[in-house]
């Protein structure tokens, strides 16, 4: 799945949130969006998911303006609390398969997707009976059941404990490598970005957010986490990423101060 964003801008009334976004995503790429809060990363993800429409420019996915049934995973799990894990998956499957499978076949498929994310033992559990990590696994299983080649993930592990976060990072990497899905992933965490990404897009502080730089990650997958985090190359690359983000923040602050000083009496 190839994606192009061409001169994309977006805003509400007098507030411009994104400006002149030009980006091309390769098929099967794991792309991470980084940047400070308010830089428009999540908004750009919503534009890709067709949950918002750009004010100008266009987003082309596989030579079409938009695509149906894009899989999205949000930070808040977004499961229906009155449905079990398998019923949440079945609901997505019904929409996708449109009567092509029996009820029994739909539940069998749901179990397969839950097993894929190591939740085969929790098919009958309701979201309120599951831990945060389990709920996010179920949300990923539901996203996979949509059948899209594009998976959008908006800070999906931000609220999880460190061990669960690592486990789900490994799971998503495996999905990317095994199923060749194109994944676009939002995070503030430089180490998470390096672990997951083939390339990183750094957004400037907003509003409006712009693309500061597109950076290829120089570490080949699969990555040995312990060896990587101890290497000088990793530390330097991570520090460069953080410096780039901080540079954008400082430049924005200086611009604001200059405007305020210029407006004084």
From TrEMBL:
<dbReference type="GO" id="GO:0016887">
    <property type="term" value="F:ATP hydrolysis activity"/>
</dbReference>
<dbReference type="InterPro" id="IPR050166">
    <property type="entry name" value="ABC_transporter_ATP-bind"/>
</dbReference>
<dbReference type="GO" id="GO:0005524">
    <property type="term" value="F:ATP binding"/>
</dbReference>
<dbReference type="Pfam" id="PF00005">
    <property type="entry name" value="ABC_tran"/>
</dbReference>
<keyword id="KW-0813">Transport</keyword>
<protein>
    <submittedName>
        <fullName>ABC transporter ATP-binding protein</fullName>
    </submittedName>
</protein>
<dbReference type="InterPro" id="IPR017871">
    <property type="entry name" value="ABC_transporter-like_CS"/>
</dbReference>
<dbReference type="InterPro" id="IPR027417">
    <property type="entry name" value="P-loop_NTPase"/>
</dbReference>
<keyword id="KW-1003">Cell membrane</keyword>
<keyword id="KW-0547">Nucleotide-binding</keyword>
<dbReference type="InterPro" id="IPR003593">
    <property type="entry name" value="AAA+_ATPase"/>
</dbReference>
<dbReference type="GO" id="GO:0005886">
    <property type="term" value="C:plasma membrane"/>
</dbReference>
<dbReference type="InterPro" id="IPR003439">
    <property type="entry name" value="ABC_transporter-like_ATP-bd"/>
</dbReference>
<keyword id="KW-0472">Membrane</keyword>
<feature type="domain" description="ABC transporter">
    <location>
        <begin position="3"/>
        <end position="230"/>
    </location>
</feature>
<keyword id="KW-0067">ATP-binding</keyword>
């Amino acid at each position: 799945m190839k994606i192009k964003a061409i001169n994309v801008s977006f805003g509400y009334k007098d507030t411009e949130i994104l400006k002149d976004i030009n980006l091309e995503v390769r098929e099967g790429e794991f792309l991470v969006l980084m940047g400070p809060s308010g830089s428009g990363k999540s908004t750009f993800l919503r534009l890709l998911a067709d949950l918002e429409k750009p004010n100008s420019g266009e987003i082309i996915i596989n030579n079409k303006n938009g695509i149906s049934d894009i899989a999205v995973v949000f930070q808040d799990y977004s499961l229906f609390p009155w449905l079990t894990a398998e019923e949440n998956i079945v609901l997505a499957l019904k929409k996708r398969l449109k009567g092509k499978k029996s009820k029994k076949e739909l539940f069998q498929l749901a179990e397969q997707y839950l097993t894929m994310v190591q939740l085969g033992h929790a098919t009958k559990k309701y979201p309120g009976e599951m831990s945060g990590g389990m709920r996010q696994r179920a949300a990923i299983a539901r996203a996979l059941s949509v059948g899209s080649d594009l998976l959008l993930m908006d800070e999906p592990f931000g609220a999880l404990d460190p061990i669960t976060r690592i486990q789900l990072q490994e799971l998503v990497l495996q999905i990317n490598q095994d199923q060749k899905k194109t994944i676009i992933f939002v995070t503030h965490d430089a180490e998470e970005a390096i672990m997951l990404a083939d390339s990183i897009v750094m957004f400037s502080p907003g509003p409006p957010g712009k693309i500061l730089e597109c950076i290829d990650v120089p570490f080949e997958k699969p990555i040995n986490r312990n060896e990587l985090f101890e290497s000088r190359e990793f530390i330097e690359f991570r520090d460069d990423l953080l410096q780039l983000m901080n540079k954008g923040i400082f430049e924005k602050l200086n611009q604001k101060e200059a405007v305020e000083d210029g407006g004084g009496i």
